[in-house]
Design a protein that fits this description.
Strands 2, 3, 4, 5, 6 and 7 form a six-stranded parallel β-sheet that branches. Strands 10-9-8-11-12 form a five-stranded parallel β-sheet. A three-stranded mixed β-sheet has the order 1-13-14, with no helix packed on it. The termini are far apart. It is of the alpha/beta class. The chain is 46% helix and 7% strand.
């Protein structure tokens, strides 16, 4: 009997041990999947039927803007445009630094300058992804982000591009024999033709250092429209990300669209530099305010800002110079009718203020995700590539004492038991600080970035590239801070690409100054606003989607950043401007199509065939034009008065 009990106990132990091994194996094999499998299911999603997706309710939230459907991308030269030749004035090499959007716009301008000066362009060096920053030795600086071969092939008819200087010229460059220019973002054509071109023709090589997010003025004379189309060819076709980035970006889009769902991309635009540039410190709290003010003081010292250090941030907010906070964006989306289970992708490698500022938006929309939610750690690590481990900073390590030192201290400590002495003064180690901003509590000067910080900055370029792919492909895009005036910004770059690729895609272009007045009228009950407030917000945002928003965008941003509004230079229309005038449609639509070239006949035929296959309901045809009328609006952007809506207040 006892032997049977022993065998039963032994069998139980063996089964328990096998169960434990199986459990550990499954946990290890699925650890990398945990990050996104829970998210790709999303919270309580209901797969829409085909009838639901074609219904008027779905189209009002996700459908294209009908009035902009005649606009199509068209980049072919429309005048005499000679092909680039190898026999030219010489070589241009360049070093580029800055954020993702500044680097991209600088490359675009650099190609246009090479065409203007009839020069051969050497693949530019991106300083943030140089080997000295600790990136993988698998990549060079340009190929860390973009596809070199695609870049050269796509622009073969425009500019001659080579991967490096000839050996003899490369040696002369190391000896610093060639002149280097540091042009500003607003550099004029005359600067290049009168100052740079003579030096290029003489030395056959010049260098450019670009740190301002560009090197050529945004607006060019009408006679140089082909150079604007060249800018579009570079940004929208030649600058393709390396295959690994493209593949992972497309995979993220597929995961967001599982179960046939659509998604909205939101870019907060909460970057420390932009906030400091506009003086938005007081809309944050505690240490974040100090960090913004410190950066603003640096910008004043460098001559970037010619204003006082201390400004009224709330006045700047009312003026539209500060971003829409995530909570405000959530309230606007609720007013538009987006349900609580809407899938929202949070783009942007930097969100100043951290997850704390995202709490209200996440409470309203639980399906708020970012790249860390959609991708496993392994997928992101494979994108970065193999990197050499960084030796830890001595400040991060506690001092290690030898056994002899520990014994000597014990012998000198006196008789036992004894009372504990007061804690001695000691330095605060970096691992004990709260986040990367811990220095501000100890020092008056920000420390120089460590090698690990520089490597993380290079990684941010990759994260921004993924966010760019997801944002351009989204059914809806909402910017929190575009056209801020401090230089090329991520949101404007995405909005320009979406306008070029599918002009009718739903891209909100909110007027921050106007919306600030809206929020001030209902500040006491933001989460239960009057109905007329909700209707007025819908009307304003619907107008921002269509021709009125595009015209406003053109007036504000195009003079500073061409790629944010690349029409009419890079587009064509399947309808004539005269037909729009005779159709009796809005004057804004006529102004928008006035400078558009007519699309080629072949493109018009394809468009007609596509339109004939679609069965559009009457509600779809009047989606934007008739929405404000159906809700009782006269088409004006008047701020609603709370006193006028007492009978509609949900609190009554």
């Amino acid at each position: 009997m006892k032997s049977k009990i022993k065998w039963a106990a032994l069998g139980g132990l063996v089964l328990s041990f096998v169960s434990l091994l199986v459990h550990l194996f499954l946990a290890k094999s699925s650890a990398d999947l945990v990050q996104y499998t829970a998210i790709t299911v999303f919270t309580e999603d209901l797969t829409p039927t085909l009838a639901t997706r074609k219904g008027p309710g779905f189209r009002k939230l996700w459908g294209n803007v009908k009035s902009l459907e005649p606009l199509h991308p068209y980049l072919n030269p429309r005048s005499t445009y000679p092909v680039a030749v190898e026999q030219n004035n010489g070589f241009i090499y360049a070093k580029i630094s800055g954020s993702f959007e500044k680097i991209r716009n600088s490359i675009v301008d650099l190609v246009a300058i090479s065409r203007l000066l009839n020069a051969t362009l050497v693949i530019p060096e991106i300083q943030e992804s140089a080997h000295s920053k600790g990136i993988s030795s698998k990549f060079k600086s340009f190929s860390y982000l973009y596809n070199e071969d695609q870049f050269i092939a796509a622009l073969a008819n425009d500019v001659t591009i080579v991967k490096s200087l000839p050996p003899v010229l490369r040696e002369a460059r190391r000896r610093k024999e060639y002149q280097i220019f540091k042009p500003k973002r607003s550099a004029s054509l005359r600067f290049y033709t009168s100052e740079v071109l003579p030096k290029l023709e003489k030395a056959k090589v010049i260098g450019l250092i670009l740190t301002d997010g560009g090197c050529l003025q945004s607006v060019l004379p009408p006679s140089m429209a082909e150079y604007q189309r060249l800018r579009c060819r570079v940004s929208f076709h030649a600058l393709q990300f390396r295959p690994e980035i493209e593949a992972l970006g497309k995979l993220m889009v597929e995961r967001l669209r599982t179960s046939g769902q659509s998604y909205l991309a939101y870019h907060p635009g909460l970057k420390r530099d932009a906030l400091a540039y506009h003086g938005c410190a007081e809309i944050f709290q505690d240490v974040h305010t100090e960090l913004i003010q410190y950066r603003r003081a640096q910008m004043i010292k460098q001559g970037i800002i010619r204003e006082e250090l201390n400004v009224d941030s709330h006045a700047r907010k009312r003026n539209g110079s500060c971003p829409l906070m995530p909570e405000e964006v959530g309230l606007l989306l609720r007013a538009m009718g987006y349900p609580a289970r809407t899938r929202i992708y949070l783009s942007g490698s930097e969100t100043f203020g951290g997850q704390r500022v995202m709490i209200p938006l996440r409470a309203m929309y639980t399906n708020l995700v970012d790249r860390t939610s959609l991708c496993s750690k392994t997928e992101l690590a494979n994108l970065v590539g193999p990197e050499t481990p960084i030796i830890p900073d001595p400040d991060q390590l506690l001092p290690v004492k030898s056994p002899n030192q520990l014994k000597a201290e014990w012998d000198k400590s006196g008789p036992r038991p004894r009372p504990l002495p007061p804690p001695p003064d000691r330095p605060i180690y970096r691992h004990e600080k709260e986040g990367w901003y811990g220095w501000i509590a100890e020092k008056d000067k920000e420390p120089e970035p460590s090698l690990n910080d520089q490597r993380e900055q290079a990684h941010r370029l990759l994260w921004d590239a993924l966010d760019y792919i997801v944002s351009v492909d989204a059914e809806v895009f909402f910017p929190g801070f575009d056209n801020d005036g401090s230089g090329p910004d991520f949101a404007s770059l995405v909005m320009g690409h979406r306008l070029y690729e599918v002009a009718s895609a739903r891209t909100f272009r909110p007027n921050r100054k106007y919306l600030a007045e809206f929020f001030n009228t209902t500040v006491d009950h933001l989460y239960y606003p009057p109905r007329n407030w909700t209707f007025a917000v819908r009307e304003h945002l619907n107008k921002s989607l269509a021709e009125e928003g595009l015209l406003q965008e053109s007036n504000i941003s195009k003079a500073k950043f061409f790629l944010s509004h690349p029409i009419p230079e890079c587009s064509c229309s399947t309808v004539k401007a005269t037909d729009i005038v005779h159709s009796g449609k809005s004057n804004n639509l006529h102004l928008l199509f006035e400078g558009q070239n007519e699309c080629p006949k072949s493109m018009q035929l394809r468009t007609q065939e596509t339109n004939s296959d679609e069965v559009d309901s009457q509600e779809d045809e009047t989606d934007l034009d008739g929405q404000s009328e159906s809700e009782g609006y006269n088409g004006t952007d008047a701020i609603p008065s709370l006193e006028q809506d007492e009978e509609m207040d949900p609190d009554d």
